[in-house]
Amino acid sequence: MLTPDRISLNTATVKAQWNLQQCIDGCLRHGFGGISPWRDVLQAAGVEAGAKAIRASGLRVSGLCRGGWYTAEGALTQAVLDDNFRAVDEAAAIGAECLVMVVGGLPAGSRDLPGARAIVEEGLARTLDYARTAAVKIAIEPLHPMYAADRAVVSTTAQALDICDQLGAGIGVALDVYHIWWDPEILAQIKRAGRERLLAFHLCDWLNPTRDLLTDRGMMGDGVIDIPALRRAVEAEGFTGLNEVEIFSAENWWKREGDAVLAEILQRGQSCC
Amino acid sequence: MLTPDRISLNTATVKAQWNLQQCIDGCLRHGFGGISPWRDVLQAAGVEAGAKAIRASGLRVSGLCRGGWYTAEGALTQAVLDDNFRAVDEAAAIGAECLVMVVGGLPAGSRDLPGARAIVEEGLARTLDYARTAAVKIAIEPLHPMYAADRAVVSTTAQALDICDQLGAGIGVALDVYHIWWDPEILAQIKRAGRERLLAFHLCDWLNPTRDLLTDRGMMGDGVIDIPALRRAVEAEGFTGLNEVEIFSAENWWKREGDAVLAEILQRGQSCC
Whose CA, among B15, B81, B157, B270, lies 20 to 30 Å from A68? Predict the structure, then answer.
């Protein structure tokens, strides 16, 4: 059971309904403990103004979504790195507990998965160097293997932790139950990660059937993921971050009134998490 | 480059177009080295008559698809086991080089992934006992993690090989590039499998974008999988089985004339594999 103060709202959950200020107001109205904005939502509000509004709210900021996409231009470019440095600055400005990294898929026209992974590792290393100067933590989000081509060539928690082990302090993982629930090694890898590497924990659910690869995520309790088991595992390692709810749902939750979505999240937090 | 004699036709590739006899005739007409029927296609022809037709063709039989589905009735039932024993008998009847196992997803209404995996392991053990008496090899097919809920709770090659190691001789893996290409450990796991455990190798491609979780597989060369690298890896272990082409494609290849599909497979075998 999750009390509201243990829950954070990822703004993508109501991306069709609310701008940043509406998300902040909604979180306060419903007693959420925190918020996690996407960069486009933050930038639409203006980074400085948005950061001021977030700080004034007193909400915790469980993350900023998202940096990464290192393979966007094929070889790692300065433009891609600069955008990641700006993401670090934005994370610092809003006091985010981490900058979540969706690392990027295969470059256009490429089938070279090892090559793409090398680009990603170099990009993460360069971003981490910068992030350390800003005291921002970098959180690699392993994405479900069905996104290996188009979004993230880091597909498992083990793979993300291997990168962390190479890069040292200041980097860890953002674990979203949607991406990791199927992994036979997940409990062992959560233990391996430990408190230092567990930087974010995201909630939603895997619907069966799933009708779209990207925008058919479920509300907690509507799918097949054993969320309490995963939450127990991260908390057993000492994770004290918030439970961030991030639901991409074009045909359901994005069509509902924002307050109804937040109310349902709190109810499911009590009954299903 | 694959010569026709190194290619096997999985009947699902032309499931909308051809029955078993038409598949056999098509394979012979185009010079394919083998065939791999699905059970429903074999049963539609009559197992005995179908087996006779296959043997008369002189085609190799790279597999029978599929046994498994151990979680279909929740706990493992005798009915499910009996169906698997029948699948073993059918594999023996057609001289299949292995019986491919799609092990089953979560039982209806369940979120208990470890429990489902235990059911599957027990089912595989019981089937293997029977298969050994019939000299049929059992091939666990790890399915892409996006099928963990509805089709297979065995999602990685490492997990499948762990089961094989527990069960001993007569069991191995069927590796389909579609299911394994994203796996950061795949080359190491192919090496771990070695010749004894590598029982089948299936080809198709991962399209980007993928529009449907089940029926939007691509023809080799139309997607992002580095097929030659995976083929080199299995052949480096001494795999001498056929390259079985299995493409589920509701909107494309299932709508084309069967001979055109087979001709395209041969062309792609030369240019993209």
Answer: B157
